[in-house]
Prior knowledge:
By secondary structure, this protein is of the alpha/beta class. Helix content is about 60%, strand content about 10%.
Amino acid sequence: MTEPAPVVFVVDDDPSVRRSIKRLVESVGLHVELFASAPEFMSSNLPEVASCLVLDIRLPGISGLVFQRELAEAGIQIPIIFITAHGDIPMSVRAMKAGALEFLTKPFRDQDLLDAIQLALERDRARRRREAEIAVLRERFESLSPREREVVAMVVSGMLNKQIASEIGTAENTVKAHRSRAMEKMQAQSVADLVKMVERLQSPLRQAS
């Protein structure tokens, strides 16, 4: 299955800068979409493909730094490459601390921008792959019965079948049956495999809390 083509979004209020970046990025075979402002970008239908955002610091309405924060608050996880003709060290530090991938001062070398874009797209591809894998695991986990989930939690905590049987008040063979069905549904080849799956499911929850 062919992966959808990535997209490079450019938000800059200077038409000449937008055209220049478009020509540069298209020269390496990437698709580019141009926007003159943050609201224009937000009102567009963003495709569900690997992407990155080349964002000017100074924009009409809201600044690039404010827009960076708004994207984060809206849960839009897109790698950001800042470009500016008016940058300073505190500004670049603030941008990078907020998660920007790169901060380039105009005039910048074409290759520096292209390198940043390639890194950003690869990071976004990796993030999307992780999220897709987690979604599959979550779907499998949700197919478990309440008792199977209970047994899985105890197995993952290191309890033996006989300990689980004593804890939930059932026969050891019944626990084995629950455990076997749960591992089959989760497509886990071993207990270690099952533990890794549950840890991956719990990891995004810890990050969100």
